[in-house]
Amino acid sequence: MTEVPAGRAAPSERGADVGRRIGVGLMYGLFKPRVLGAWRVPATGPAILAVNHSHNVDGPMVMGVAPRPAHFLIKKEAFVGPLGPFLRGIGQLQVDRTTADRTAVTDALAVLGQGGVLGIFPEGTRGEGDFASLRAGLAYFAVRTGAPVVPVAVLGSTERRGRLIKKLPPLRSRVDVVFGDPFEAGDGSGRRTRKALDEATVRIQGRLTDHLENARRLTGR
């Protein structure tokens, strides 16, 4: 059963829906998204989108093309200047990756507790985007709340030509977003021990890696 932290309201889903509308317009304006399997995202109830992370566009891309408004855990370094109030206004969650950020954890649990969609980059930071190294945060949220995990693979062009910014795919290039089948991360025992979370992390990594391989075969990436 999904828990709602006492005295803590979930970040605005209306704001996240505004962010989704902005994201879809921006992403379709700059790139050529191709979305596969969006119907696999549960239509109602809590869900966790577990997204690989190799481009700076991954978060806005998934936020824009997902069938439901999503609240992503985003590194606090992104919340600078006017971008900070904007990100908070569209329902995104600030997280300090250098410590156990209790506020971020509480906000994320509040999203799931009220039946919302939480977006996570389980690798913790932008890298190869191959799910090779996962942090335990995803397992914690999935096991504690029982929310299904939906693997999401974002596959963009690796060509350097046409890039406006180094960390983005080339402008007007195709970006594939492939949603996988939702799955339960826990073993059904309800355990939240360190061993249980470690075992859940291994299960999650296997499912995410398999999804990424299938997505690459499906899209020819």
From TrEMBL:
Signal sequence interval, chain numbering: none
Entry keyword set: Acyltransferase, Transferase
Keyword Transferase: yes
Pfam families: Acyltransferase (PF01553)
SUPFAM superfamilies assigned to the protein according to its UniProt record, in alphabetical order: Glycerol-3-phosphate (1)-acyltransferase
Alphabetical GO biological process terms: phosphatidic acid biosynthetic process
GO molecular function, one term: 1-acylglycerol-3-phosphate O-acyltransferase activity
Gene Ontology cellular component terms for the protein in this record: plasma membrane
Domain Phospholipid/glycerol acyltransferase per the UniProt entry, residue ranges: 47-157
Transferase found in the keyword field: yes
PANTHER family: 1-ACYL-SN-GLYCEROL-3-PHOSPHATE ACYLTRANSFERASE
Protein name listed in UniProt: Acyl-phosphate glycerol 3-phosphate acyltransferase
Species of origin: Streptomyces silvensis
